[in-house]
Amino acid sequence: xxxxxxxxxxxxxxxxxxxxxxxxxxxxxxxxxxxxxxxxxxxxxxxxxxxxxxxxxxxxxxxxxxxxxxxxxxxxxxxxxxxxxxxxxxxxxxxxxxxxxxxxxxxxxxxxxxxxxxxxxxxxxxxxxxxxxxxxxxxxxxxxxxxxxxxxxxxxxxxxxxxxxxxxxxxxxxxxxxxxxxxxxxxxxxxxxxxxxxxxxxxxxxxxxxxxxxxxxxxxxxxxxxxxxxxxxxxxxxxxxxxxxxxxxxxxxxxxxxxxxxxxxxxxxxxxxxxxxx
Length: 278
Fold this sequence. Notes:
The protein is of the alpha/beta class. It contains eight helices and ten strands. Strands 3-2-1-4-5-10-9-6-7-8 form a ten-stranded mixed β-sheet, with helices on both faces.
């Protein structure tokens, strides 16, 4: 029998929320607070004047820092009213969003990073013309960090988020860890949990899944390819949870996880596992 992995991020000890002045970024942070109530949270705004066409870069940097402080103050005011929020702090850091979040988290697997997206995909496909935090930037952050990342999209019913959580399971230790976390999140929030076992792609050992997760119903098996099955699940859920080792596997970063982040209609939580499959 395959042993269930010990997973440090089963209980996140803090949240790092990327703030850019948008309502979507605040919504992503709000979702994280609901998923892990009482957790301390740090709101971070990245300021990077490099490459901007300005004759007076110091003046531009001062203006950008002023805007960043305003964005953080607004986010703090909106999030402070949440009953479930823990200690809240803010920081303005210089550099690209990816570099700043990598520096702030310092490869801490206990951190949950949040990002908001400025679009809602329709039928699994994003619309044309995504502004500011476009998919390449969001995916750059997801790809670069060693901790888990929540890419938040506005749910249909923000007040009751999350009502439904879906999790992808393929028998890998990363996906088993994601299932363990999703189970805890569902228990904490009162959401219903649906497991997706997609068998239309690379081979999936159902015997391993049944040994490690005997509670998964037979109805969880989906004959579609993993991405198609998870995109369909995102249409019926507020959040989809997937595991990633960042190296290989059906749900590895750069394949299904990455495309799911870009195309899902729901929020996506990419859960980092520090363990590799034997």
